[in-house]
Amino acid sequence: MKTLESILSVHPFFVNLESKYMALITGCASNVRFEAGEFIHRQGEEANSFCIIRQGKVALQVCPPHKNPVTVQTVSDGEILGWAWLVPPYHWQFDAQAVELTRAIVLDGKCLRNKCNEDHTLGYELLSRLLPIVGQTMEATRIQLLDLYGARS
Which of 54, 86, 100, 124 has its CA 20 to 30 A from that of 36? Predict the structure, then answer.
């Protein structure tokens, strides 16, 4: 049986992270599952976690006032969901809804923030690994908004 640490240590997000940090991170991790249609988090709620999607699909959505939700990105197997746990004011910028049965490893953001405050090198490592994910999310949002509204101008 694989341990959370053995699963996380080979994930691309954590590759080449010192083993002492992997042990700290694993202490903040748990296995979870989300049913199809279940919201993992809602826009505006306090952000206290991030997920490594092991299997399944999750839609990141924005909900414009008086309109239907718009999916700006779909996250699936092997991808990271969530970065707002590390960036003040620690609130979700999107809704995240499981499109299908989704299995994930959830990392407790408050636990990780405390560990990052105690060891700034760990904080730098996590931040430098999360920044490309923030960029990908922003780019996906930009493209989706151009698709929705660009043709109307």
Answer: 86
Kindly tell me the sign of the dihedral angle through the C-alpha atoms of 43, 90, 24, 136: positive
Rounded to whole angstroms, the Cα distance separating 2 from 149 reads 46
- What SS3 class is residue 105? strand
95-98 and 80-81: which strand pairing? Answer: unpaired
**φ, ψ (nearest 5 deg) of residue 14:** -105, 0
Q: The whole model's pTM is what? A: 0.86
Domain boundaries, the chain: 30-152
Once rounded to an integer, what is the mean pLDDT over residues 64-75? Answer: 87
CATH superfamily membership of 30-152: Jelly Rolls (2.60.120.10)
Question: In the predicted model, is pLDDT for residue 49 greater than 80?
Answer: yes
- DSSP, res 90: -
DSSP assignments along 33-45, one per residue: EE-TT-EEE-TTS
Taking only the tens place, the pLDDT of each residue in 89-141 is: 999 989 999 999 999 999 999 999 999 999 999 999 999 999 998 888 888 77
